[in-house]
Amino acid sequence: MNRRTLLAALVGIVIAPLAGAQASTSDEIAKYRAALQDGNPAELWEARGEDLWKQKRGPRAASLERCDLGSGPGVVKGAYAELPRYFADADRVMDLETRLVWCMVQLQGYTEAEAKKNPFGSGSDKRSDLEALTAYIAVESRGVKMNVPLAHSKELEAYRIGEKLFYYRGGTHDFACATCHGEDGKRIRLQELPNLMTAEGAQKAYTTWPAYRVSQGELRTFEWRLHDCFRQQRFPELVFGSDAAIALTMYLARNANGGVFDAPAIKR
Amino acid sequence: MRLCLRVLTLAALIGAGCATISSDKETGEKAASVLKSSFKPAGQAGLDRLDQDDTQRACSAALGKAVPKELAAQIEQANVATIRYPSDGQLLGDWRNGEKIAQEGRGKQFSDDPKGPVGANCYACHQLSKTELSFGTIGPSLYQYGKLRGASGEVQRYTYGKIYNSEAFAACSNMPRFGYKGILTEQQIKDVTALLLDPASPVNQ
Prior knowledge:
- The complex is a heterodimer.
- By secondary structure, chain A is mainly alpha-helical.
- Chain A has helices spanning 3-15, 24-36, 42-54, 96-106, 112-115, 129-139, 153-166, 177-181, 199-206, 222-232, 243-255, and strands at 85-87, 92-94, 186-188, 191-193, 211-213, 218-220, 237-238, 265-267.
- In chain A, helix 4 (96-106) crosses helix 6 (129-139) and helix 7 (153-166) crosses helix 11.
- Chain A is globular.
- By secondary structure, chain B is mainly alpha-helical.
- Chain B has helices spanning 10-14, 24-38, 54-61, 69-80, 95-103, 145-149, 153-164, 186-197, and strands at residues 2-6, 18-22, 39-40.
- Chain B has eight helices and three strands.
- A two-stranded antiparallel sheet of chain B has the order 1-2.
- Chain B is globular and about 60 Å long.
- Chain B has two domains: 1-38, no CATH class; 46-205, Cytochrome Bc1 Complex, Chain D, domain 2, CATH 1.10.760.
- The chains are: A mainly alpha, B mainly alpha.
- At the A-B interface, helix 7, helix 8, strand 3, helix 10 and strand 7 of A face strand 2, helix 2, strand 3 and helix 3 of B.
């Protein structure tokens, strides 16, 4: 099914019930998602990501199969469910995307700038290797319980900074993450908002990223989610792989501990 | 104050070695410096948008909980003082324009055209009319706002003031301060006030 067809189907489902009961809209979207479970286009990104992981690439013609995502070199299964975490070799807390950049530099010989030049793809001419790799690593944690560690002092520090950032009001509109994600059962227009201050809300949200966004025809990562939230908050642009991105991811991923990872998902 | 707890056990030496426990204030300072290094200017959004005023700082520090009563009163008082009412004394504009402003979600994002429209996006968070079914629920329903309150001078002044600076009436409100922060023009605030209060507006049907 191509992107237009998918979008048309989703828009139809969203708009049709408007004339009737509004509450049924989210039920219809849930049904739509269920119907697509076996055919999530995210699979295309997962397959390309697996190829990118295994191919010999970069100036050193090396694969990423020796990349240590936290559970040991080359261990992919369950890795996403334990990220972000502290890595002694980099002396830094890293999320998956940042760790992938690290491995592309260390193993394949890319410069850091080359490795992270295209974090968010657009269309077939500007596909993002990082999105594909993230999709592949993420799907290898499907069904695994979130278990993000706070054992190292830098992990705890990132978590505490992430908490501050979650409540940080700024910009022209005084918005913080908490403005939209701090109460149960709220919506923007018809879009339901997870309450990220509760374990249940954080689990439901965090375990469904990365996701295939029907409206964009792209697989989007959690870094993208944060980047676009800050855009709507009227903040300047969040830098990919920045300390704020990692700290917020740490805060939300840790709060999702115990939830069963179920991504890449499919979203409107 | 930085507490560095050195525990000379083998386990600690293998692990983090020296656990650093920062105070809450230190964490706040670190978060502020992390913010500065983690964003870049884009479009119309410069890094100055990360600088907090006193109200933003106080509300952020509450970490989602209600601020103490006294502080809330201080915040409200400071924000009341910022409200500028129109010099012509006329608070009600055109509700038809007000409806357009209430629907418009663009404005002030780094992806928005700086010369393009700036809306209030009221429907993102509030129900306003019976005809618009796509409304959010972060704020209370404003359906029949004027019908329930009338449109006396006092109600007009409160409504205009609330849109101008919501923090003047509810400390740490989720609602933007549309006038004080220069999001909407005086005329736009008059138009949205009319949308809420004009008996002919769809809000009051």
